[in-house]
Amino acid sequence: MNKSIFCLLFIECSLSGYAGEIRNIDHIQEYQKLRYQYARQGNLEKAAETDAKLRRIILRTIPEIIKELESISHNEEISLVSYLRKLPDEDYLKMVMQLVRHANLRNPAQRQFLESVIFEPFEGERDNLLAMNWRDQHVRDLCFTLKKKLSSESPHQKTISSILDGELYKNMIYNAFTHGELRIPNHLGRGGYAPQFKKWGENEQQQIKAVKELRQAWDAACTVLPEMKGTEDIARVNQAWENAAQKAKAVMRMLPPNEEDAQQRVGKFFYDTAFSQYFFLAPASREANSTYQKVIKKLAELYKLQEKLPSQLTGIGQFHAEIISSESYLNEEALLLLTKELEEKLRKATSSRSVEE
Fold first, then answer.
1. Highest-confidence range of 63-67, 157-161, 233-237, by mean pLDDT?
2. pTM for this prediction
3. In this structure, are 212 and 343 located in the same domain?
4. Do 215 and 184 reside in the same domain of the chain?
5. Contact 305/228 with Cβ under 8 angstroms?
């Protein structure tokens, strides 16, 4: 038998003997090695199976992991922190809740470990996971517990307060619309909202009707603008865009239907029908012949014609101010869909390059 395969079987058989009793970091590290070995052997099914076992072990042994922190090396701690921070969102949140519950933050090693797992920058969408889900009851409970356990002088107190009051969430939406910074993590679902946030709106059909009216008003405004010759057309163009802004305001203020499936269907309809047409990062708006590109081109022409002319088109500014609302559940749904669409495009492009190479 191949020596490496024999070693894998030996490790797995040894570990399986601890079923239900694996309570220390050494055993977790063995599972990490086993997962890595399976992946190197090309046995991805076994690697995934081992990884799932490892996640289950970690979730039920957090108290033991915390107690043993002072007995592991710096490199071992870095490796463990790195693995924990890459857990799938729901497992990550469960792990963090356990960690916050059991860690003694007066113990420097335990406090440093917790801060590394939660507060070190991820440089990606995971940075916004708590902010995205700031209305979720479990996330709020987690933040309130952190506030109580951390020192009042901790620099993380401000971050936690900004999560709880929705400030970081608003910043995330603002950065997406203003700077094109798409760091949009998964949403846990509105069914888990704290009671004060469980407010539901009109039914699916009524909301789809409102989105259709927004699209019609947008189309009308985009039709009038290219026909503009000069200052004599300002009132007519502004009126069309002000009407579009009113329709946008109505859509942005809609509360979600009370069923999650309906929320997602309305969100998809809004994304396809309106959002993808006017948001500058949406692939549909970036097509050379798209309505959005025609509007941008016309505004550039007007600027050359008379520098101050575009600034007099106040209706366009009103429309833009309405569509970037951080209060809209539909913007949240649309940004999630856009993130997935762009990730899929990147994945396909990367796969194509790999095949060519």
1. 157-161
2. 0.84
3. yes
4. no
5. no
